Q: What sequence folds into this?
């Protein structure tokens, strides 16, 4: 089995140090030791190793707080390929598991900061635009790309009708395949975090927008299941 390279993008929902991304994979900063027994990080602090998935993965978290589809006239997702397709492996490190060939998965959780419209007339048009960015990652060399449904928020940036329209669009029968998306990570299907009434519950949402550590732990199994499902597709 190939070692999996996973690049996750989005906004603070997965950028937080206790976010679902981290809790799902149980990832830690990984160091390697060369022949002189000098411990060297694989790369910058955003690269991690996880054995929680069905096969070991190396992963780079490219989630950036405040991320939107359109920033300064270009999508935030565009710079993610091809520069970050392969988390750096030290050339001298030849012991398993990193000596195997690698395949790459790209995931994104973007839309909340755009109000699920991103300057487009409809949520469906916006979803298509996000999908195009994901497809571009595949054209750059990623094997698979996944999009996530959106959790609610109560600060007025994203209206509930826009959110539900976006989620309904990307989870609709045949939509993913028709738009070049290999998997939909349905974070919003988690009954507690997907319920807008719980945005005011500080046990789950710290400020009506960002999940607490407890809140992030609830959709974490959904993300891990998605990663494992995509690994099985490779």
A:
């Amino acid at each position: 089995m190939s070692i999996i390279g996973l690049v996750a993008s989005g906004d603070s929902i997965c950028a937080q140090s206790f976010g679902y991304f981290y809790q799902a994979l149980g990832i830690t900063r990984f160091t390697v030791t060369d022949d002189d027994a000098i411990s060297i990080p694989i790369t910058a602090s955003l690269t991690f190793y996880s054995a929680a998935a069905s096969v070991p993965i190396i992963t780079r978290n490219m989630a950036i707080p405040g991320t939107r589809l359109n920033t300064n006239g270009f999508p935030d997702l565009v710079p993610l390929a091809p520069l970050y397709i392969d988390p750096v492996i030290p050339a001298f490190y030849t012991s398993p598991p990193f000596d195997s060939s690698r395949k790459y998965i790209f995931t994104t959780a973007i839309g909340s900061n755009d109000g699920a419209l991103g300057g487009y007339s409809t949520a469906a048009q916006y979803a298509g635009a996000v999908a195009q960015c994901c497809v571009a990652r595949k054209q750059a060399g990623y094997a698979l790309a996944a999009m996530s449904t959106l959790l609610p928020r109560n600060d007025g940036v994203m209206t509930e009708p826009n959110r539900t329209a976006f989620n309904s669009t990307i989870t609709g029968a045949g939509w993913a395949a028709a738009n070049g998306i290999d998997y939909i990570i349905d974070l919003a299907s988690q009954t507690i975090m997907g319920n807008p009434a719980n945005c005011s519950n500080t046990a789950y949402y710290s400020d009506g927008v960002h999940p607490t550590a407890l809140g992030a732990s609830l959709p974490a199994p959904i993300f891990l299941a998605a990663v494992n499902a995509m690994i099985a597709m490779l």
